[in-house]
Design brief:
Elements: E1 2-6, H1 11-28, E2 32-38, H2 42-48, E3 56-60, H3 73-78, H4 80-107, E4 111-114, H5 120-129, E5 134-138, H6 145-150, E6 156-159, E7 173-175, H7 189-198, E8 207-211, H8 218-233, E9 237-241, H9 247-254, H10 259-262, E10 265-268, H11 273-279, E11 282-285, H12 289-298, E12 302-304, H13 311-322, E13 327-328, H14 338-349, H15 351-365, H16 370-380
Parallel strand pairs: 1-2, 1-4, 2-3, 4-5, 5-6, 6-7, 8-9, 8-11, 9-10, 11-12, 12-13
Helix pairs in contact: 1-16, 4-5, 7-11, 8-14, 12-15
């Protein structure tokens, strides 16, 4: 059986493919797996699948049409930078469609799974043209444009959130949750202490993990840098995943602190998430579906800070907050440097609240078998 997995643009659209690929291997064994991603994410995709050398990674051109709700149609036409980017990306979409035609003719997959990202548009349309069954997965409380476009062709529509958020045909839908790698599960105090020790922290130390995703977040990096010294002086350990190309600026801030404090502020571009997340007492993160699923499966206490520019993250944060499953902070509150530090300290000091939030997150949203379920759906899909 040949299966093609498509996703790109960010780690949130590619790392789930790896979790599914592992399960497909376990359940089927001899399956041929192909991953299609966009050219800009090709290098990162190769890193993600580095320990699965038999998975063939392919890249195609992909583009998106920029649409700003606050701007008129006329603005989109006369604003030259936006117009030129849209024209360029239309050309990329055409090229990606030609490449998809060639790839699907050569690979002849039995099923195409689309995780999201604009790379899925040409792949999905060509699969439909060739009458290849399509399965899509929509992650967030706000349905993605790519998935809305492909939903009418899909045989099955898997979702990361409950069905109430999606405009799709209910007969096609199944709420699987987000597929993430195994290893994200609730830890005993002893297990968490072991994770802390393995990372160089004392078991008794409170540990904060901050992540802005694979690309990082400059606002999150800056607000933590302004308050890190205070937390470190109070005995905290910090795991800071600053994001691609953003480590240097954060290390410059760390270098201004006394040496004895610097050693407890671990700064990395990005890293294997599971052992770091499992060591943390408090997690500060963007509210992407992937990160929230990892935290839910592991029953962690989360301070969620949605990007003001991403509607899906804001809707995720508001929904999870309404369930008591995270503490929501607005990025606009960062005008006061103490905002984040105070939120972290206050939440950790109130262990009843912290544990209640973690329990609500786990009880409402944990889906540890999402990848297993999706692999079963893919393998059972026939033309």
């Amino acid at each position: 059986m040949r299966i093609l997995l498509a996703g790109g643009g960010s780690g949130g659209h590619v790392t789930p493919l790896k979790a599914i690929a592992r399960q497909l291997r376990l359940q089927k064994g001899t399956v041929e797996l192909y991953v299609i991603t966009d050219r800009s994410f090709y290098g990162r995709a190769q890193e993600i699948f580095a320990d699965m050398a038999d998975v063939r990674i392919k890249r195609i051109f992909a583009g998106k049409l920029r649409r700003y709700r606050s701007k008129s149609l006329l603005w989109h036409v006369i604003h030259l930078p936006t117009l030129l980017k849209n024209i360029r990306d239309l050309i990329y979409i055409a090229l990606g469609t030609i490449q998809s035609l060639w790839l699907l003719i050569r690979t002849r997959p039995d099923v195409v799974f689309c995780k999201g990202g604009f790379v899925c548009v040409p792949v999905g349309y060509v699969a439909h043209l060739f009458k290849i069954p399509i399965i899509i997965h929509d992650s967030d409380t706000k349905p993605g444009l790519t998935n809305r476009m492909l939903s009418r062709f899909a045989k099955t529509i898997a979702t990361g959130m409950p069905a109430e958020f999606y405009p799709y045909d209910l007969s096609k839908m199944v709420y699987t949750g987000m597929p993430v790698e195994k290893g994200y599960q609730p830890q005993s105090k002893k297990q968490q202490d072991e994770h802390k020790s393995a990372l160089g922290f004392q078991p008794s130390q409170p540990v904060l993990l901050l992540t802005g995703g694979g690309n990082g977040s400059i606002p999150l990096n800056e607000v933590l840098s302004r308050g890190a010294g205070e937390l470190l002086q109070q005995g905290w350990g910090i795991i800071h995943l600053a994001g691609k190309g953003k480590v240097g600026a954060v290390k410059t801030d760390r270098d201004q602190l006394p040496k004895n404090l610097q050693q407890n502020w671990h700064i990395e571009e990005f890293a294997q998430m599971a052992p770091r997340l499992l060591a943390a007492d408090i997690i500060v993160a963007r509210t992407s579906a992937n990160t929230l699923q990892e935290c839910a499966n592991a029953q962690k206490t989360v301070i969620g800070i949605p990007s003001p520019h991403l509607a899906d993250q804001n809707m995720n944060a508001e929904y999870f907050n309404s369930k008591g499953a995270l503490v929501m902070l607005a990025e606009s509150s960062f005008n006061e440097p103490s905002t984040l530090v105070d939120a972290v300290r206050e939440l950790y000091a109130d262990q009843y609240k912290a544990k209640s939030i973690a329990k609500a997150l786990h009880d409402n949203f944990a889906k540890p078998d999402a990848a297993i379920e999706l692999a079963k759906i893919i393998l059972a899909t026939k033309n």
